[in-house]
Amino acid sequence: MKIAFFSLKELLNLILVFFCLCNLSFSQKKFFIQNKKQSDKVKFQLINNLVIIPVEVNDVKLSFLLDTGVSKVIIFNFLNVSDTLKIKDTETIFLRGLGEGESVEALRSKNNVLKIGDAVKLNQDLFAIYDSNLNFAPRLGFPVHGIIGFDLFKDLVVEINYSKKVLRLTAPEKYRYKKCKKCERLNLEFYNGKPYINAEVMMNRREVPVKLLIDSGGSDALWLFEDDSLGIKSSNKYFYDFLGHGLSGSVYGKRSKIRTLSLKSFDLNKVNVSFPDSTFTSFARKHKSRSGSLSGNILKRFNVIFDYRNAIITLTKNRYFKEEFQYNKSGIELAHDGFRLVREKDKPVGNNNGRHGNSQDQSGTKIIVDPQYKLSLKPAYAIVELRQGSPAQKAGLLKGDTLLSINNKSTHHFKLQELIMMFYGDSGKRIKLKVERNKRVLIFDFYLEDLF
Questions:
Q1: What is the mean pLDDT of the segment spanning 25-45?
Q2: Cα–Cα distance between 107 and 72 in angstroms, integer?
Q3: Which of 57, 83, 267, 271 is most deeply packed, by most CB within 10 A?
Q4: Calpha distance 405→412 (Å, rounded)
Q5: Taking a C-beta distance cutoff of 8 angstroms, is the pair 63, 81 a contact?
Q6: 131 falls in which pLDDT band (50, 70, 90)?
Q7: Is residue 26 over pLDDT 60?
Q8: For residue 83, what is the enclosing H or E element?
Q9: Cα separation of 244 and 322, whole Å?
Q10: Quick check: pTM over 0.85?
Q11: Residue 163: which residues within 8 A CB-CB, separation 6 or more?
Q12: Cα-flanking dihedrals φ and ψ of residue 431, to 5°?
């Protein structure tokens, strides 16, 4: 038998190596920050009230929706990224969410590396979905490859500065709260890895307490589940509309307004509210005390600190707080629908003086080339939802129509969200649309209408 003897220095080195190995093993199971400050800033895109952040998956740069309403990291695998991501160790499961459809099939993949700024996780489960209908990019006009939520929020303190469009990620043990006289801190409750807060709504002349899922992955303001026994019921002023698209399909319901939403001392007035049909929310209602969801159009009015470890959310009013709650007054929902060839004026090259270039082929046919114009591929925008009884529907527009121009300006000069916001204008504003339908060009005009 041999007995090993170690000097004090060697023993300390062994202890240090052991500590580092244990720390590395622990870090593989959660997000950790790879810098001395244990904190990092990440810029994000704010699109339709949604936070889109840069995420590296197995060294591939992608864009993810930051969604407090999801408990799993999801990749939309129909975007042909699976081979690049080297997804492995897969098993088939089924995921369920809001919508009219059934559960969707997904592949669960283990041992993936995720990186958000300096925040890294070395052993992340991913759920790859192949359903081509679950593509948020056409409706946002921006590529979205996946969704991340609970896995990030549970490991780090997450600050979302909506006004500066900056995300700050900090290790909980290093985070220090600042004194804040103009902020409010509310307690979080959790159910299936999702955060809930208590609030009050003033509706139908009654103050009603509500428990709301915080859903940063929704672009609306407020969703409420109708319940006569609790006093949660839409007013007589409402219209039926497409509300959004979830993991399990489209969601429809009533759109209306409530007088006030109160988050402690913060009161938001004349708030947009949607009441989804119960047929689309049976899965969400499994948490029986849940009254609805608080989403992006409210969250963006604050700079928000999510601290899951201490079960606290901190809200500070920002420059969006007093913005009026608007809604789509046209009845049109648009989406990116491929590309179309557009003839546009080209910048002059050389000293052509605007003259046409002439040439002649062997048969004697003259070919005239106009150097002032070029053909370019530009994004096409199509109507994907059309509210019954809306100004656009009454004017004769149809689902599937491709927009060519709006108020005499070609639509390819606009980003998708810029086009959509034109439908949120003042009541009485005239909208003139030139569209293509079955290879025919048609012109329609209507006026935006405020139903409230």
A1: 85
A2: 12
A3: 57
A4: 8
A5: no
A6: low
A7: no
A8: helix 82-85
A9: 25
A10: no
A11: 303, 318, 319, 320
A12: -120, 125
Predicted confidence band at 154 (pLDDT cuts at 50, 70, 90)?
A: very high
pLDDT of residue 6: 42
Query: Cβ–Cβ contacts within 10 Å for residue 78, how many?
Result: 15
Are 233 and 201 a contacting pair, CB within 8 Å?
no
In the block, residue with structure tokens 């695998």: 77
* DSSP strands (E only) in 162-221: 166-170, 183-187, 189-191, 194-203, 206-215
192 or 160: which leads in pLDDT: 160
* Beta pairing class for 74-76 and 119-129: parallel
Q: Residues with Cβ < 8 Å from 320, sequence gap 6 or more?
A: 162, 163, 300, 301
List the domains of the chain with CATH numbers.
Answer: 32-172 (2.40.70.10), 181-317 (2.40.70.10), 332-347+367-447 (2.30.42.10)
Extended beta strands in 318-372, E state: 332-345, 357-360, 366-369
- Compute the distance between CA of residue 249 and CA of residue 227 in angstroms, rounded to an integer: 23
Nearest CA-CA partner of 74 in 26, 112, 28, 36 = 112
Question: Which ranges constitute the DSSP H helices of 132-182?
Answer: 137-140, 150-153
pLDDT of residue 71: 84
Reduced to 3 states (helix: H, G, I; strand: E, B; else coil), residue 410 is: strand
Kindly report the CA angle at 346 between 343 and 351, in degrees rounded to 5? 145
**351 SS3 class:** coil
Dihedrals φ, ψ of 79, to 5°?
Answer: -80, 10
**What distance in Å separates the CA atoms of residue 145 and residue 75, rounded to the nearest whole number?**
6
d(CA 211, CA 283): 16
* Dihedral in degrees, nearest 10, Cα atoms 255, 256, 257, 263: -40
- Res 11 pLDDT > 80: no
Q: Measuring CA to CA, which residue among 422, 222, 449 is closest to residue 325?
A: 222
Q: Which of 143, 80, 73 is nearest to 115 (CA)?
A: 73
How far apart (Å, rounded) are the C-alpha atoms in residues 96 and 74?
12
**pLDDT (mean) for 287-292:** 81
Rg over CA atoms, the chain? 27
